[in-house]
Amino acid sequence: MEKQRFREFLSAKGFKLTKERDEILMEVLSTRGHFDPDELFVRLKTKGSKVSKASIYRTIPLLIEGGFIEEVERVEKHAHYEKILDRKHHDHMICVKCGQLIEFFSPSLETLQDELCKKKGFKVIRHTLEILGHCEKCGD
Questions:
Q1: Under a CB-based contact definition with an 8 Å cutoff, are residues 100 and 59 in contact?
Q2: Is the torsion defined by CA of 126, 33, 74, 65 positive or negative?
Q3: Strand, helix or coil at 41?
Q4: Of the residues 82, 88, 136, 139, which has the maximum number of CB atoms within 10 A of its CB?
Q5: Is residue 140 part of a domain?
Q6: Radius of gyration of the chain (CA)
Q7: What is the residue range of 76's domain?
Q8: How far apart are the first and last CA of the chain?
Q9: pTM, whole model, 2 decimals?
Q10: pLDDT tens string 25-78
Q11: 64 sits in which H/E element
């Protein structure tokens, strides 16, 4: 189902579902939690794939635009992603010291965001919230 959806998305943009894009998509769909492009590359290489890093970096924006993944953190120009197809919305707290990522959901924050958008006449497509700080272990 996701493969067909990605194929249709690519076709609408004038692209084809190449073997490399297919392998990247399937690996992303089988991923649990967050990942970065380098981890994805290593996992594919371990499975014998001939996918290049360049193909991964070119495919990620397509997966974001198509609604398959989203960027969840960017630390010093290094991004991490997660698939969003089968996951419920959540936000993130990120420790800037050790990199720990804590997922959370707050109905009151969601309500506040909806109210703010309504008040400003802003139609939400999706949103992300990242709270940067120090985890319990790192203190400060």
A1: no
A2: negative
A3: helix
A4: 82
A5: no
A6: 17
A7: 2-83
A8: 47
A9: 0.63
A10: 999 988 877 788 998 999 999 999 999 999 999 999 999 888 888 887 665 566
A11: helix 53-65
Residue appearing with tokens 């993130």: 92
Total Cβ atoms within 10 A of residue 56: 22
Query: Three-class SS of residue 27?
Result: helix
Tokens of 59: 């495919």
Q: Is the dihedral of CA 62, 93, 95, 27 positive or negative?
A: negative
Contacts of 54 (CB under 8 A, 6+ apart): none
Indicate whether 112 and 66 sit together in one domain: no
Taking a C-beta distance cutoff of 8 angstroms, is the pair 40, 27 a contact? yes
DSSP run (H or E) holding 130: strand 130-133
Q: Tokens representing 1?
A: 């189902």
